[in-house]
Specification:
Strand order of the largest sheet: 18-17-16-15-21-20-19
Shape: globular
Helix content: 40-55%
Strand content: 5-15%
Low-confidence stretches: 428-434, 582-588, 657-696, 912-928, 950-1000, 1106-1121, 1147-1161, 1168-1258, 1476-1516, 1654-1659, 1687-1709, 1763-1807
Structural class: alpha+beta
Distance between the termini: 69 Å
Number of strands: 46
C-alpha cells in the first residue's frame, strides 16, 4: 500500500513539456476522482496524440479530462528544440563555465553534471546538446543516471551524464572527469586534463556577444543619463539569441570546409572524406590545439558524413554558412550590424520551433494543493489492457485519415551552397612575401639546371634555398619541376640530379609532417619521374634520396593524397561523360564549341557529384550499377598505384643491412652507452606486451604498413572482396621485387665518386699536442650568439663546413663558410677538452645554407664560455660519432691527473705510457644510483654514530721532509677526506702523531722550504725571518714568526708547510688550536699593514655541531671531551689575545687617537653617528616588556648553569680549564655554535689597558672577526677588544647556480626570440654581478678596518677555501700596491689560493676522482672582481686585462699544472710520484716555481714540427713561469697606463652594481683563430695570414677590414707602443743591429712626472678622493650596521629593526608564546638553523610560528613579530653631530646607502610596504606548506617573501603584473591543521596558482583586499 508509484513515458520525441503535463493530468484524475477512466487517458495519449510531420500545422488534442493541449513540429527536423533550456544553463553557470563545457564536449572529454533537481539535469544536458548544432553528440548521453548504474562513470569513453546530488558522494575520485555543480554554478577541471580554448579572435568575439545578450544594459551602465527603459527580451528569445551566437561561431570557424571535402564514391551512395591538413594549412590553424582536436572527434566525422553530400535537404545552417562572408564584410564597416544579424538568426530559430504562431492557450487541470500529503491515498487500479489497445487502434486509424488531408509544404533536396573559397579567407601571415623577383630567380635556377648550366645554377643556389622558406616558392618549385617531366621519366646527368634532389629535400624540410600545403603530395609523381643512369640497365630514381622526411611515415598524409587522386580521377571520368551527353549537331564546329565550353566551365567535384545525385532517381538500375563499377575500378587502380608509391618511399636504399644495423645499434646502446640513461628502458614497452616485437626484416615492416593502409582506404572506398584479396597478395611480391632492384642500385651508387668537398685544413698545434682521433667532417652550426650570422652586418660565417680535431689538449674546428659567395674567410672555434662541462646530442634536420641532409648533431659546452654545435657530415657514420664522443670523455676525465696535458713534457721523455694505453673509462660510480646513494648514506651515518666502525684502508702516502728532500712513507690510517671534516677526524689528524710525537724537520729541509715565494713575501711584510730552522732563536720584540709546525702537513693537510704565527704561542698550542675551526684550518697571519701595523688573518669558520655531532659527543667519554674542549678554548683565547697585543693601535696612549687626523671620519664614528638603538654603547636592553623586570637575567642563568656543571664534574683539571668558560661552555654542551670562552687568565690585564667598557657593542675593537651571520649570536661580546661582524657572501652553491645562468645568457644554444630574454636580462637574472658586489663590499670593509680603523681583521668564512681567499685577496690587492704588479699578483695567488689550499681540482673537476663534481668558478669570480677594480683604477695595475683573461682561461685548460691540485701537499705528492728532483725549490717549480729568463724554455710553447729537446731541469709547467718568459719577450701582459703612486696606495673601489661592468671575457668571440690565450698558436696563425696577404698583394696596404666577432681587435689593431716597437725592431734588423728588448726601450722613454700630471687638478683630485673615501666608509658603516641589526634589532622588535626608534626610548611589545612541539616533518631552528625533527624536540611560537630548540629559545628575539605595540610609528633616527666635523649619518641615510649597495635590500619605511606578515605558502614542487614572511610592495609592484622577518635577501617574489585574480579557496591536502577554512586563498597568475594560508579568516581577507587594491591601481 505504501510502496511508491511512478508514471513514466518513453518516447523518441523531445517534447518534454507536453509529456510532463500529460502525466500530471493522469495523476490529477487519479487523485481527485474525476469520472474519467484512466484507460481512456492512456489510450488517447498513446493512440490519438501524434506528432505532425516537419513543417506541418499545429496539432491540438485533448486526453478526455477537460484539457486542451497542442503540439507543434519544428520546421526543420535536424534543428534541435531548446525552449528556454539554454538561457537557464547560462543563468546557472555563467558565460565562462558554459564555454568551458562547450569546449570540453567538442574535444571528447568526460562530463558529469550533478544537481538536486532531476528536471534541471535533463534541461541542462539538453541545452548543451543544442549548443553543439550543427554537430551531434555521438557518445554516451544519459541526462539522469540511475543509482544502480553508477559504475558507468568509470567508462573509458567520453560521456555526458547527469547525476543526482545525493549520489555524488558515492562517486570515487575521477582524475579524468569534468564535474559540474549545477546548483553551485561551478565547474571543476582535473589537473591532469588540458582543455584547449577556442581560437582567437573567435573566443573574445563570442564572449562579447554573449555579454550583450545576457546583460543588455551593460553598454549604458556608465552613461551619465542612462535610458529609463532597457529592452529585455523574453527568455525564449534570449535562448535563441544565445544559440544563434554559437551557430554563427561555428560558421565562422568552419569557413571553407566544403572546399576541403573529398568525394571518392557517388554510386551507390556518396562517400565523402575531409582533408584535415589542407583545411588547417589554408586557414592558418596548424598550431591551434582546439581546431586539431575538433577535426579528430567523432562529432565532426558525423558532421561530414551527414552534411557533406552536395545534394540534400538544406536548413538554416547551410544558409548561414553561405551568407556569412557577406555579413562579416558589412559588420567590418558597422559593428552594430553584428547584434542585428544575430537577432535575425535567432528569429529563424524561434520560427523553426513555432512555425505557425497562434494565440492558443493550453488548459490542463491540476490536483488540489497538498493532495500528496493526504493520509488516505487511493490505490492505483489495474488498467484494462484490451480497452487501452482498442483506443490506440482507433486513434491510429483516425490519424491516417488526417494525414491524407495534410497539404503542407514538403522538404525537398537541393544543391548545397559551396560557400566562399578557402584560399581567399586567410590573409597572408608571412613576414615577407615572395616577390616576383624571388620567383623569377627560382625559375631561372631550375632552367639553368635542366640546361646543364651547373656553374650558373650554383651561383644563385643559396638565394633559391632561402626563397624556399615560403609556401608559394615551394609550390612554384613543384610546378616548375613538373614542366620538365616528359612522358613519365626524366633522365638527368649526375650534377643535375644532385641539385634537383637538394631542392626537393629543402622544399620537403620546410614543411611539416602533415603536409598542410600539399608540397609532398605534389612531389610524389616527381619522385618517381626524375632519375639518373648509374650503369647500363640500372637507374636511380629520386625517391631513393628523399626518404628521410617524416611526412612519408604519416599515414594520414597517404590517405589524404590517395583520396585526392581518386577524386581527380572521378572528376575526369564524369567530365568526359558529360562531354558524351552533348546533343548531336550537323555542324562539327558546334560540337567542338560545346565540348570546349564544358571543359572551360571547370566544375568542381562537388558540383559534378550534385548533378549526379540530382538525376540518380531518373537513371536505371543497370546504368547505376555500371557507374558504381567504374568508380570501384578507379579506387582499385589507385590503390595499386599507391601501394607501389609507398614501397618506393618506405623501403630504404640499403634495405638488406637495416635490420643488422638496428640490432647492432641496440647492442651498442646497451653495452657502450656513455650516457646515464637506463638501457633497459628502450625495450621496456616491447617486453611489456604493448608493442609488437621488432621485425627482423624490412620487407615485413613495409608490407604490414602498406596492408593497413590498403585495408582502410579500400574498405572506405567500398572495394570488392576479390579486389582486396588480390591487393594483399600483390603487396609482398612488390616489396620483394623492389628490394631486389635496389640491391643493384645500392651497389652502383656506392661506386660513384663522392661529391667534391673542400680539403681538410689542419690547425696549428702546440709542442706536445697530438691529434688523438681522425678528423671528422662536420658543419659548425650557429648558436644563440649573433656573431658570424650576418644578422647585424658583416659576412655570413656560420654555418661553416670543415673538420673537427680532437687533440690531447684541445677540441678544434677549422673550416670555411658554407656560403662561399658570402665570405672566404677561415672559421676556427677552439676550447680545451678539460673545460667541457656538458655534452648533448642534438637532432639536426635540414639546416639553412647546408644543401644536404644531416643525420646527427652534437652540442659541446665549455666553461671558457664557448659553445660548439656541430652536425656530422653524411660520410661520418653513427659509430664514428659515438667513438668520437667517448674519446672526448676519456680525455676530459683521465684515469689519473698525470695524463693531463700539463705533464706532456714528462711523457715525451718516456716517463709514462700514453694516456690511451691505459683504461681511461672509469667504472660506474657506485653512488650514481639511488640504491648506491642510500647505502652510502646509511653506512656513513652508522659509522658516525658508532654502530659500525670504519674500514681501514691503504691511506695516501704521508709526506715527510728530510735532508734528501720530500719522502713518502707507506703508513696505514683510517679513511680521510678533506672535504668532510668532523671532530673525530680532527682528533685523528691532530692526535698522537701530531701532539705527542711531532716530527721535527731538519734545518736543510726548512731552508729549502723557505725559498718559496710566499715565505719571501712574509719577510717583505716583516712577519718573520728566513731561513726558518727548528733552533733559530726568536727575538722577543718580534710579535710573529714563520712557524714550521705544519712542515709535514700533519697539522692541516690543506695548509702550507710554513705559516706565520704569534711568537707567544708554541707549536703545541697551535696544534691544540685546530679543534676550534672547521677542517682544522686555524687562523694564520697573511698580511701586515706597513703604516698602522694592523694584521690580516684568515681561517675557516668556527665549529657548529649538527644533530649527529651531538650524538657522537654524548657517546664520548665526558671527562676527556671536556678536557679537549677546554684546552682548545683556552688556546683560542690566547691566540686572539696575542693578535690584539700585536696590534699597535689596540692600546692607545696619552695624546694619541685612533686614526689621528682621520678619527672624525673613522668607521666607529660613522657607526655611532647612525644612532641605531640596537647598536648603542650601553649594554642595557632597550626593548622591554611590562613584565621584563620580573624575569630573571638570562646571562646570570647561563652562568649559574655552567658553574653547576663545573661543580658536579669532580675533576680539578676540568675545573681549572673551564672555570672561566661561562656562557660558552653552556653553549658548547647544548649543541650551539661553539665559540671561544668569555674570559681567560690574561683578560684582566688587557681590559685594564683598554680603558673602555668591554661589553659595549661599538667599542674600540682591536680585532674584527668577519664571519657568518649564523654565528653572530654566539660571537657577540665574547673576546676583549674583539668584535664580530656577520656578513652575507656568495657561497659555492650560489656561485654555481649563478654561473650556469650566466653561461646560458652569454653563450645561448639557440636564438632568443623574446626581447625580454636577451643578454642583459639574462645576466641580471643570473645574479653574477650581485656576487661580485657582495665580495667587493665585504673586502672594502676589511680595507677600511685595516687602513682607517687600524684594527686587525680575521676573515673566517665557510671552510676557509672559497669566500675567504676571495675577500682576503681583494683586500690585499687594494691595500698593497706590490700585489698590483706582475710579480706581486703572482705571489698573491700562490699564497692565498695555492698555498692555503683552494680546492681547484674539486671545484673544476680536473681529475678522475672529482669528475662527478659540479664546476664552481670561485676563482673566476675573484678574477672578475679584480677586473672591476682594474677598470676603476686603470693606472694602478702593472698588468692589463688580457693577463686576467689568460689566467681565467688556463685555470681550466689543464695546460699548466698550477691549478690541478687542491693543496700544497698534493703538489708535493705528485712531484715525488713523478720523481722530479728539483733541488732548488723542492719540486715546487713543477707547479708554481720560479722562472728562468731563458728564451729556449717554452712550457708547451714550441710549435708542432719544431723539435725541442726537453730537459728535466728546464721543463716547467707553471703558468707564472710561462708568463714571465712571455713578458720578457713582448709587452702582451703589460699595462702602459701603469704609474706607481706611493702617495695614494690604497684603492677603494665602488661596489655599487651600477658601477660594475660585464666582463667581455664572457661573450667575446674570435672566429679567425680561436681564443688568443694560446699565444704561440695565435702568433703563428697571424704570421701565416700576413704572409698570405703579402703573396696576394704586390703592394702592402695599410687598410684592414676588422670584423667584430671574427678578428681580435686588440691584436689586429695594437696600441701605439706595440706598433712602434715592432717598427723599431724591423728597422734594427734591416740595419743589422741586435734588437732591443721592449722593457729596455720602455724604460728609456721620458714621461711626465706624476706631480706635473696632477698639479693642474690637485684641488679637485684631492676633493674627489676625500669624497670617494667618505662614501666608501659609509658603505662599510652600512654593512656593520646591517650586521649588528641582525642581532640587536631582532630582539628590539620590528620597528627597531627598521631603525625608526630613537636610542634610549623604552619599547613595550608582545613576547613570544612558546608551546612544546613534536616535529613530524623536518624543520629548522630559526636561530641556529639546525634541524628539528623526530627525537629532537623544540618550542614553537603560537603567534608567529617560529621554531627554536629548548636552549636556543633563551637567546631568541624577545619581541614576537606577530604583534606591534601601539604608537610605534616610524620616526627619523636621532642624529648625533660632532662639533669638530660636519659628517653625520641618520637612519634614513644609512637605509639609503643600503638600498644603493644592495638591490634586494628593501627598507622598512611605509612608502612601499603596503602590507606585511607571516603566511603559509604551498610549494610548487613537493607541495609542502612553509611559513614565510611576505611583504606587499606598492612601489615595486611585487609580493616578496622571506624566510624570516629579519632577512634582508628575499627568497623570491611574485610580479603583480602577472596576477589574474585573488580569491578565497578551500584547504588542500597537507594544509596546516586547526586553521579556519576561510583563512585559505589562492593567487592566480598567468604562469601558475599560488596557495596561501593566513592565521585566521580576517587576516586572509585583509591580504585579499590589499592585493586587489594594488591590482586596481
Amino acid at each position: 500500500m505504501y510502496a511508491p508509484k511512478s508514471l513514466a513515458i518513453i518516447s523518441r520525441f523531445e517534447y518534454f513539456e507536453i509529456f510532463k503535463t500529460s502525466l500530471g493530468l493522469i495523476y490529477t484524475v487519479f487523485m481527485e476522482g474525476i469520472g474519467v477512466p484512466l484507460e481512456t487517458l492512456v489510450g488517447n495519449l498513446l493512440g490519438c496524440v501524434n506528432v505532425p510531420p516537419s513543417g506541418g500545422p499545429q496539432f491540438r488534442f485533448s486526453l478526455g479530462a477537460g484539457d486542451k493541449q497542442a503540439i507543434q513540429a519544428p520546421l526543420h527536423p535536424r534543428v534541435p528544440i531548446s525552449g528556454t533550456s539554454v538561457e537557464s544553463l547560462f543563468t546557472q553557470l555563467g558565460i565562462r563555465n558554459v564555454l568551458t563545457l562547450f569546449c570540453a564536449l567538442l574535444t571528447d572529454n568526460k562530463i558529469m553534471i550533478h544537481s538536486s533537481s532531476y528536471w534541471r539535469l535533463t534541461e541542462s544536458c539538453q541545452a548543451l546538446v543544442c549548443l553543439l548544432f550543427p554537430f551531434k553528440y555521438n557518445y554516451v548521453y544519459i541526462p539522469i543516471l540511475p543509482a544502480s548504474l553508477i559504475e558507468v562513470l568509470s567508462s573509458p569513453t567520453p560521456f555526458l551524464i547527469g547525476v543526482h546530488s545525493s549520489l555524488k558522494d558515492d562517486v570515487s575520485d575521477m582524475l579524468d572527469v569534468i564535474v559540474v555543480d549545477l546548483d553551485g554554478g561551478a565547474v571543476f577541471i582535473p589537473d591532469s586534463l588540458h582543455l584547449p580554448p577556442l581560437p582567437e579572435p573567435l573566443l573574445s568575439d563570442l564572449q562579447n556577444i554573449l555579454s550583450q545578450i545576457l546583460q543588455p544594459d551593460l553598454k549604458c551602465a556608465d552613461f551619465a543619463f542612462p535610458p529609463t527603459t532597457v529592452r529585455k527580451s523574453a527568455p525564449t528569445v534570449v535562448d535563441k539569441e544565445l544559440r544563434a551566437s554559437f551557430l554563427r561561431m561555428f560558421a565562422h570557424l568552419l569557413q571553407g570546409y566544403r572546399m576541403c571535402l573529398t568525394i571518392i564514391r557517388i554510386h551507390p551512395r556518396p562517400v565523402i572524406t575531409f582533408d584535415k591538413a589542407a583545411f588547417l594549412g589554408e586557414r592558418g590553424l596548424v598550431d591551434c590545439d582546439f581546431t586539431n582536436r575538433l577535426l579528430e572527434c567523432m562529432s565532426f566525422s558525423t558532421f561530414v558524413a551527414e552534411r557533406g553530400p552536395p545534394w540534400r535537404i538544406c536548413d538554416l545552417w547551410d544558409d548561414l554558412y553561405a551568407a556569412l562572408p557577406d555579413k562579416l564584410q558589412l559588420e567590418s564597416h558597422d559593428t552594430k550590424l553584428q547584434i542585428v544579424h544575430i537577432q535575425d538568426l535567432a528569429h529563424q530559430l524561434l520560427m523553426n520551433e513555432n512555425p505557425a504562431s497562434s494565440n492558443f492557450v493550453a488548459k490542463v487541470p491540476k490536483p488540489t494543493e497538498g493532495a500528496f500529503t493526504r493520509i488516505h491515498q487511493p490505490i492505483f487500479p489495474l488498467l484494462d489492457s484490451l480497452k487501452v489497445q482498442e483506443l490506440i487502434n482507433e486513434g491510429i486509424s483516425q490519424w491516417n485519415v488526417k494525414c491524407l488531408q495534410f497539404t503542407g509544404k514538403p522538404l525537398i533536396s537541393k544543391f548545397v551552397p559551396i560557400g566562399p573559397d578557402i584560399s581567399v579567407l586567410q590573409p597572408s601571415r608571412h613576414l615577407f612575401s615572395n616577390s616576383a623577383r624571388r620567383l623569377e630567380v627560382l625559375r631561372t635556377c631550375v632552367t639553368y639546371i635542366f640546361e646543364n648550366k651547373i656553374a650558373d645554377a650554383r651561383k644563385i643556389f643559396p638565394a633559391v634555398l632561402r626563397a624556399l622558406q615560403t609556401k608559394d616558392a615551394r609550390l612554384a618549385l613543384c610546378s616548375e619541376l613538373s614542366q620538365h617531366v616528359f612522358s613519365t621519366k626524366a633522365v638527368l646527368e649526375p650534377a643535375q640530379f644532385d641539385m634537383v634532389i637538394r631542392l626537393m629535400n629543402r622544399a620537403l624540410t620546410e614543411g611539416s609532417a602533415i603536409d598542410e600545403h600539399g608540397v609532398a603530395r605534389r612531389m610524389l609523381p616527381l619522385a618517381t619521374s626524375f632519375c639518373r643512369r648509374l650503369s647500363p640497365g640500372v637507374m636511380q630514381f629520386a625517391f631513393t634520396c628523399i626518404q628521410e622526411h617524416e611526412v612519408w611515415k604519416n599515414s594520414q598524409f597517404w590517405e589524404a593524397a590517395f583520396y585526392s587522386d581518386v577524386q581527380n580521377d572521378l572528376r575526369s571520368f564524369y567530365v568526359e561523360k558529360n562531354l558524351e551527353n552533348i546533343p548531336v549537331s550537323p555542324s562539327r564546329e558546334v560540337v567542338l564549341r560545346e565540348r570546349e565550353k564544358v571543359k572551360r566551365q571547370d566544375a568542381t567535384m562537388l558540383e559534378l557529384a550534385g548533378m549526379q545525385l540530382s538525376v540518380m532517381q531518373n537513371i536505371s538500375d543497370r546504368e547505376r550499377d555500371g557507374l558504381a563499377q567504374s568508380e570501384e575500378a578507379t579506387v582499385y587502380s589507385q590503390a595499386i598505384h599507391y601501394a607501389n608509391r609507398m614501397v618506393s618511399l618506405l623501403v630504404p636504399l640499403e634495405s638488406n643491412s637495416v635490420a643488422k644495423k638496428h640490432i647492432s645499434s641496440d647492442i651498442d646502446s646497451v653495452t657502450d652507452s656513455v650516457s646515464n640513461s637506463n638501457p633497459e628502458s628502450e625495450h621496456s614497452e616491447i617486453e611489456s606486451g604493448f608493442e609488437e616485437s621488432l621485425p627482423t626484416d624490412t620487407s615485413v615492416t613495409v608490407s604490414r604498413t602498406i596492408s593497413r593502409f590498403i585495408d582502410k582506404v579500400c574498405t572506405h572506398g567500398e572495394v570488392t572482396e576479390s579486389h582486396l584479396r588480390a591487393l594483399h597478395q600483390m603487396i609482398s611480391g612488390v616489396v620483394a621485387m623492389h628490394i631486389e632492384s635496389l640491391e643493384a642500385v645500392h651497389r652502383e651508387a656506392s661506386k660513384l665518386p663522392p661529391i667534391q668537398k673542400s680539403k681538410i685544413v689542419y690547425p696549428t698545434l702546440l709542442q706536445g699536442e697530438e691529434i688523438m682521433f681522425e678528423p671528422l667532417r662536420v658543419y659548425l652550426l650557429p648558436d644563440g650568439r649573433e656573431d658570424g650570422t650576418g644578422q647585424f652586418g658583416g659576412p655570413l660565417l656560420l654555418p661553416s663546413q670543415g673538420a673537427i680535431f680532437l687533440t690531447n689538449y684541445r677540441l678544434i674546428f677549422k673550416g670555411f663558410p658554407c656560403d662561399a659567395f658570402s665570405s672566404e674567410l677561415s672559421v676556427v672555434r677552439v676550447f680545451p677538452v678539460s673545460s667541457v662541462t656538458k655534452e648533448k646530442r642534438v637532432t639536426v634536420q635540414y639546416v639553412a645554407h647546408i644543401d644536404q641532409w644531416l643525420q646527427e648533431g652534437l652540442q659541446l659546452r665549455s666553461n671558457t664560455f664557448q659553445l660548439m654545435r656541430i652536425a656530422f657530415d653524411e660520410e661520418v657514420t653513427p659509430e664514428k660519432a659515438q667513438i668520437f664522443l667517448k674519446n672526448i670523455l676519456r680525455i676530459r676525465n683521465p684515469s689519473s691527473v698525470f695524463y693531463k696535458f700539463a705533464f706532456r713534457a714528462l711523457r715525451i721523455q718516456g716517463f709514462s705510457p700514453s694516456v690511451f694505453n691505459q683504461p681511461a673509462i672509469r667504472d660506474k660510480d657506485k653512488s650514481g644510483t639511488l640504491r648506491g646513494i642510500a647505502k652510502k648514506t646509511f653506512l656513513k651515518t652508522a659509522r658516525q654514530v658508532g654502530l659500525k666502525p670504519k674500514k681501514e684502508k691503504e691511506s695516501p702516502r704521508r709526506i715527510q721532509l728530510s735532508n734528501s728532500g720530500v719522502s713518502i712513507s707507506e703508513t696505514r690510517e683510517e679513511e680521510d677526506d678533506t672535504s668532510v671534516c668532523d671532530d673525530n677526524e680532527l682528533n685523528r689528524i691532530s692526535g698522537s702523531s701530531s701532539v705527542n710525537h711531532p716530527i721535527q724537520a731538519d734545518p736543510k729541509t726548512l731552508e729549502r722550504i723557505s725559498e718559496r715565494r710566499y715565505c719571501k713575501d712574509y719577510v717583505r711584510l716583516g712577519l718573520g725571518t728566513l731561513p726558518v730552522t727548528a733552533t733559530t732563536p726568536l727575538r722577543q720584540r718580534d710579535p710573529f714568526r714563520i712557524s714550521p709546525v705544519n712542515s709535514y702537513y700533519g697539522l692541516c693537510r690543506s695548509y702550507p708547510a710554513l705559516m706565520v704565527m704569534p711568537t707567544s704561542l708554541s707549536d703545541d698550542s697551535i696544534r691544540r688550536l685546530i679543534r676550534s675551526h672547521k677542517c682544522g684550518r686555524l687562523p694564520a697571519v697573511i698580511w701586515r699593514h706597513k703604516k698602522t701595523g694592523a694584521i690580516l688573518l684568515r681561517s675557516a669558520s668556527f665549529h657548529s655541531k649538527s644533530v649527529m655531532g651531538r650524538i657522537i659527543v654524548s657517546n664520548a667519554p665526558t671527562a676527556s671531551s671536556n678536557v679537549e674542549v677546554g684546552t682548545a678554548n683556552l688556546e683560542q683565547e690566547r691566540y686572539f689575545s696575542a693578535i690584539v697585543a700585536a696590534t699597535p693601535k689596540s692600546v692607545p696612549r696619552l695624546g694619541s687617537s685612533w686614526g689621528s687626523a682621520d678619527s672624525m671620519l673613522s668607521i666607529t664614528s660613522l657607526v655611532l653617528a647612525a644612532g641605531t638603538p640596537g647598536l648603542s654603547v650601553s649594554n642595557q636592553d632597550t626593548t622591554l616588556t611590562p613584565d621584563s623586570g620580573r624575569k630573571p637575567n638570562h646571562l646570570g642563568q647561563n652562568f649559574s648553569k655552567a658553574m653547576q656543571n663545573i661543580r658536579t664534574s669532580g675533576k680539578d683539571a676540568i675545573n681549572r680549564s673551564t672555570a672561566t668558560l661561562g656562557r660558552w661552555q653552556n653553549r658548547k654542551n647544548s649543541g650551539g655554535s661553539p665559540t671561544p670562552p668569555l674570559r681567560n687568565l690574561s683578560r684582566r690585564s688587557i681590559d685594564a689597558d683598554s680603558g673602555s667598557d668591554c661589553n659595549s657593542v661599538f667599542k674600540m675593537a682591536a680585532l674584527y672577526i668577519i664571519g657568518e651571520k649564523s654565528q653572530m649570536k654566539a660571537m657577540k661580546d665574547v673576546y676583549p677588544k674583539t668584535d664580530f661582524i656577520g656578513v652575507e657572501y656568495p657561497d659555492a652553491r650560489q656561485i654555481r647556480v649563478s654561473f650556469k645562468k650566466l653561461m646560458r645568457s652569454c653563450v645561448p644554444s639557440n636564438l632568443v626570440s623574446e626581447s625580454d630574454q636577451g643578454l642583459y636580462k639574462g645576466i641580471e637574472s643570473s645574479k653574477w654581478l650581485d656576487c661580485a658586489h657582495n665580495i667587493l663590499q665585504v673586502a672594502g670593509t676589511v680595507v677600511d678596518l685595516l687602513d682607517i680603523q687600524g684594527a686587525s681583521v680575521l676573515v673566517a668564512l665557510e671552510d676557509g677555501w672559497d669566500a675567504t681567499p676571495q675577500i682576503t685577496s681583494i683586500a690585499q690587492l687594494c691595500l698593497d700596491p706590490y700585489y698590483r704588479t706582475l710579480d706581486g699578483f703572482r705571489d698573491l695567488i700562490e699564497k692565498e689560493w695555492l698555498a692555503f689550499g683552494h680546492r681547484f681540482a674539486h671545484r673544476s673537476g680536473q681529475d678522475g676522482s672529482t669528475q662527478n663534481s659540479v664546476f664552481t668558478p670561485v676563482f673566476l669570480l675573484f678574477l672578475d672582481v679584480v677586473h672591476q677594480i682594474q677598470r676603476q683604477f686603470p693606472m694602478s695595475f702593472e698588468f692589463n686585462e688580457f693577463y686576467l683573461k689568460f689566467i681565467a682561461y688556463h685555470t681550466v685548460s689543464s695546460r699548466f699544472s698550477n691549478f690541478l691540485f687542491d693543496s700544497e701537499r698534493e703538489r708535493l705528492e705528485a712531484s715525488e710520484e713523478l720523481n722530479v728532483s728539483n733541488q732548488r725549490s723542492n719540486g715546487s717549480s713543477l707547479f708554481c716555481g720560479d722562472y728562468s729568463d731563458d728564451d729556449s724554455v717554452f712550457p708547451g710553447g714550441r710549435l708542432a714540427g719544431k723539435r725541442v729537446q726537453y730537459q728535466s731541469e728546464n721543463s716547467t709547467t707553471s703558468l707564472f713561469d710561462y708568463v714571465s718568459i712571455q713578458n720578457a719577450k713582448s709587452p702582451i701582459f703589460h699595462n702602459f697606463f701603469y704609474l706607481p703612486n706611493e702617495d695614494y696606495e690604497v684603492l677603494r673601489p665602488c661596489s655599487n652594481i651600477s658601477s660594475l661592468y660585464i666582463w667581455n671575457y664572457y661573450f667575446e668571440e674570435n672566429l679567425s683563430h680561436g681564443p688568443s690565450y694560446d699565444i704561440e698558436v695565435a702568433s703563428e696563425d697571424r704570421r701565416a695570414m700576413e704572409e698570405l696577404a703579402m703573396e696576394d698583394y704586390a703592394t702592402s696596404s695599410q687598410r684592414r677590414i676588422v670584423t667584430v666577432g671574427y678578428d681580435s681587435v686588440e691584436f689586429v689593431i695594437p696600441d701605439a707602443f706595440t706598433y712602434l716597437h715592432s717598427e723599431i725592431t724591423k728597422l734594427e734588423q734591416e740595419l743589422g743591429h741586435l734588437p732591443m728588448k721592449w722593457k729596455q726601450l720602455w724604460d728609456k722613454l721620458d714621461y711626465l712626472p706624476l706631480d706635473a700630471i696632477s698639479h693642474a687638478n690637485c684641488v679637485s683630485a684631492a676633493a674627489a678622493r676625500t669624497h670617494a673615501r667618505t662614501l666608501h666608509k659609509q658603505t662599510t658603516a652600512g654593512l656593520i650596521i646591517r650586521s649588528k641589526r641582525g642581532v640587536a634589532a631582532s630582539s628590539l622588535g620590528p620597528a627597531v629593526g627598521q631603525g625608526n626608534i630613537e636610542a634610549g626610548v623604552p619599547v613595550y611589545s608582545q613576547p613570544h608564546r612558546f608551546e612544546k612541539c613534536n616535529y613530524t616533518t623536518p624543520s629548522h631552528c630559526d636561530l641556529c638553523s639546525h634541524i628539528l625533527w623526530g627525537i629532537v624536540k623544540g618550542l614553537k611560537c603560537a603567534d608567529c610560528g617560529r621554531n627554536y630548540h629548548d636552549k636556543c629559545a633563551e637567546s631568541a628575539p624577545r619581541t614576537c613579530p606577530r604583534y606591534r605595540a601601539d604608537g610605534m610609528q616610524p620616526s627619523p633616527v636621532g642624529q648625533r653631530a660632532n662639533s669638530t666635523t660636519a659628517v653625520s649619518i641618520s637612519g634614513s641615510n644609512s637605509a639609503a646607502v643600503g638600498n644603493q649597495e644592495f638591490p634586494n635590500f628593501v627598507s622598512g619605511t611605509a612608502e612601499n610596504r603596503t602590507h606585511e606578515g607571516y603566511l603559509y605558502k604551498r610549494g610548487a614542487l613537493l607541495k609542502a606548506w612553509k611559513l614565510r614572511w611576505f611583504v606587499l610592495d606598492s612601489t615595486m609592484h611585487q609580493l616578496r617573501y622571506y624566510d624570516a622577518q629579519s632577512d634582508v635577501q628575499y627568497k623570491g617574489f611574485i610580479d603583480l603584473a602577472e596576477v589574474v585574480s585573488v580569491a578565497n579557496s578551500a584547504p588542500t591536502q597537507g594544509a596546516p591543521k586547526k586553521i579556519d577554512e576561510k583563512a585559505f586563498f589562492d593567487l592566480r597568475t598567468t604562469k601558475r596558482i599560488y596557495n596561501f594560508c593566513a592565521s585566521d579568516s580576517g587576516s586572509a581577507q585583509e591580504w585579499i583586499e590589499k592585493i586587489q587594491g594594488l591590482l586596481i591601481q
